[in-house]
Design brief:
single chain, two-stranded antiparallel sheet, 274 residues, globular, 11 helices, mainly alpha
Length: 274
């Protein structure tokens, strides 16, 4: 009973913080699983993590939908772009030895953390100046509380980034939000709260595809599905809390918190690969 409760509490923590920053929580869960199960194969770790990411992002998407923060038009396009990479990534995880997996995971997280802390906002003016281009999307969203957002972005980098994220995220079991949120907010000019909500919607679709590939390929360990379900239950509860907290947290705090968490976890996992 204590073991089950600990899994639920882990899922709640992953769900709350993951939903708050729109990252799905996989970047938190994978390091924990790597430390708890040092002898587990990478595909088993990623299978459990992606399953939990699905529960978390699905629950968080419901909460964000009520707040009217999800850009569904962009979300469906980017989710579709992630699917080819997501399927290939999930199918090739078992080709990577555990120590190499740890090293790749650690480096990716440190690089992402450095980017968030140092990089200034990127505006693709040359593309956006051509407002008549069929590749430029002009979005207008009104949240449930009346807050309105008007922004424009170039679809081409968004689709390419989503394709790459689909592969990397399912390969490592991190969900992809740690890359998608900064990409949406820094490169595509999404308001941060809209970026986190839309990222969660994309994650739900992408994580489901990756989880199904892992399931049918037999990547789940003997008790992997059971662990996924218990952690997933906690993630569903935590995601609702994270979505509510998002309205009370400043945008810069969200990105800075994400960067710090990424850096710490990345260093810890990267060192273990040496």
């Amino acid at each position: 009973m204590i073991f089950i409760l600990s899994l639920i509490l882990l899922g709640a923590a992953v769900g709350a913080f993951g939903t708050l920053i729109g990252a799905g929580g996989g970047f938190i869960l994978v390091p924990v699983l790597l430390l708890l199960y040092p002898n587990a194969e990478p595909e088993s770790i990623t299978a459990i993590s992606l399953g939990v990411v699905f529960f978390n992002s699905f629950s968080g998407s419901i909460a964000y939908s009520k707040m009217k923060r999800i850009d569904y038009k962009s979300g469906w396009l980017f989710a579709a772009a992630t699917l080819p990479g997501a399927i290939i990534g999930a199918a090739t995880t078992d080709l990577i030895p555990r120590h190499i997996f740890n090293g790749i995971f650690g480096v990716l997280m440190v690089v992402a953390a450095s980017y968030l802390l140092i990089r200034r906002r990127i505006v693709i003016k040359s593309n956006l100046d051509n407002s008549n281009s069929r590749w430029i999307a002009h979005q207008h969203l009104t949240e449930a509380d009346g807050t309105t957002h008007d922004f424009s972005y170039d679809l081409r980098p968004g689709l390419f980034i989503s394709l790459v994220i689909g592969y990397i995220s399912t390969l490592l079991g991190i969900g992809g939000g740690i890359i998608h949120v900064p990409a949406l907010s820094r490169i595509l000019n999404f308001p941060v709260h809209i970026a986190t909500a839309t990222s969660h919607f994309i994650l739900a679709i992408m994580a489901l595809a990756g989880t199904l590939v892992h399931y049918f390929s037999g990547s789940f360990a003997q008790d992997g599905i059971e662990r996924t379900l218990w952690i997933g239950i906690g993630a569903v509860i935590g995601a609702q809390l994270g979505a509510k907290l998002s309205s009370k947290v400043r945008s810069e705090w969200i990105l800075n918190s994400l960067a710090i968490a990424l850096g710490i976890a990345g260093l810890r996992i990267g060192i273990s690969a040496l």
